Amino acid sequence: MTVVSRPDGLADAARLIRQGGLVAFPTETVYGLGADASNPEAVASIFQAKGRPSDNPLIVHIADAGMWPTFARGIDNRALSLAERFWPGPLTIVLPRTGATPGIVTAGLDTVGVRMPAHPLALSLIRESCRALAAPSANRSGRPSPTTAQAVLDDMDGVIPMILDGGPCPVGVESTVLDMSRTPPVVLRPGGVTVEALRELLPDAAIDPSALSPPVDGRKAASPGIAHRHYAPNIPLTVVIGSRYSSKLPQLYDDTLSSGGTPILLLSDESSEAFAPRRCIPLGPYNDPARISSRLFNALRELDNSGATVAFAESFPAEGAGLALMNRLLRAAGFSVIHSD
Ligand code: TXA
Ligand code: MG
Q1: DSSP state string for 19-86
Q2: Per-residue pLDDT averaged across 166-173, rounded?
Q3: The predicted structure's pLDDT at residue 6
Q4: Do strands 91-96 and 111-115 pair parallel, antiparallel, or not at all (unpaired)?
Q5: What is the three-class DSSP state of 147?
């Protein structure tokens, strides 16, 4: 395994992609695990490396809107104006797929998700390899998405040949997945582009109920990835829902201690001061959910090495960037929640 930083690794990485190999690369959201989207065998090896269920489709990453019609059909004016406004950036647009899109990329679905990432290294890799990249997040299936090259290495050492190191990912949560193949359009996964920003162009955009609720058995998920276990730390995590500075969080912490457990808290900066000296991982200012999101996946990984036996997290308003934040936090907790009031 080679971890290389720009620009020395780029030519080698592009060659690997053209030869059907896998390369982990930075995007503005999280690190992706890329393969040539037009090569079914290369794409199959992504599923193998991640241990990813074969029913979970991959996003196709492009560097130029001209590559889009190779994979998607029905690119109408609404889709074009979304791309103009939000690309490059954390928006994945789902449309019917073309015959040229290998079925393994879309896990057999007749739609395909496409996005143009806003990271110079991702764009250079696509251009230099002359290939669109099918790429999921570069974590082992079920683990928090990697926002640093080190996190990729922790999950994938010995499994993939190369990581391009572009430093920490600035957004830190994955792209918003928007299904434009349906009327009205539906946000399948909240992410780096807020629903409020989308609705400036698409006032009728709906939000899939799975954004903040557990998968319902028997209902076929609109986005198969939603149904799988996600972002899980290795210790139990519970989200405490309710008013700010509720006494519930310190109480749960103190009760765990007195019954012989080793607790840790995931908190806003303000709460970590208010609940000191209890052990916590501060995530950022309460009123800055985008900043908290950018720290979340790393914090979930820190839990694993913390020596704690149980974790409790503060909750945040599920608006603006807070929707993606709560979506990830609730999934990481397997929807284990306690209501404080
Ligand atoms: O920000 C991101 O989107 C990152 C970076 C690497 O680009 N990628 C990422 O990929 O998060 P992944 O595979 O971890 O998540 C892709 C999500 C899954 O929930 C999947 O089910 C959904 O997108 N998805 C992909 N294609 C779809 C389709 N055709 N229809 C519905 N959902 C789709
Ligand atoms: Mg993922």
Answers
A1: TT--EEE--SSS-EEEEETT-HHHHHHHHHHHT--TTS--EEE-SSGGGHHHHBS---HHHHHHHHHH
A2: 97
A3: 57
A4: antiparallel
A5: coil
| CB-defined site of ligand 1, < 6 Å | 27, 29-30, 32, 56-59, 90, 92, 94, 106, 109, 111-113, 117, 135-137, 174-175, 177, 188-189, 223-226
For ion ligand 2, residues whose CB falls within 5 Å: 137
**Residue among 195, 13, 160 at smallest CA distance from 86:** 195
Q: How many angstroms does the Cα of residue 291 sit away from the middle of ligand 2?
A: 20
Task: Give every strand in the sheet of 237-241, ordered side by side.
Answer: 280-282, 263-267, 310-314, 237-241, 337-339
In degrees and rounded to multiples of 5, residue 265 shows phi and psi of: -115, 145
Provide the pLDDT confidence category of residue 224 given band limits of 50, 70 and 90: low
Domain ranges across the chain: 2-212, 237-339
Q: How many other C-beta atoms lie within 10 A of the C-beta of residue 75? A: 18
Domain 2-212 CATH class label = alpha beta
Q: Above 70 in pLDDT, residue 7?
A: no
Residue 50 has which token pair? Answer: 């991640």
The whole-model pTM stands at: 0.96
Give the pairing of strands 2-5 and 162-165.
parallel
What average pLDDT score do residues 141-157 get?
96
Q: How far is CA 334 from CA 52, 142, 240, 257, in A?
A: 18, 11, 13, 23
CA 215 and chain centroid, separation: 17
The correct CATH number of 237-339 out of 3.40.50.2000, 1.10.275.10, 2.40.50.140, 3.40.50.11030 is 3.40.50.11030
3-state secondary structure of 259: coil
Other beta carbons less than 10 A from residue 121's beta carbon: 21
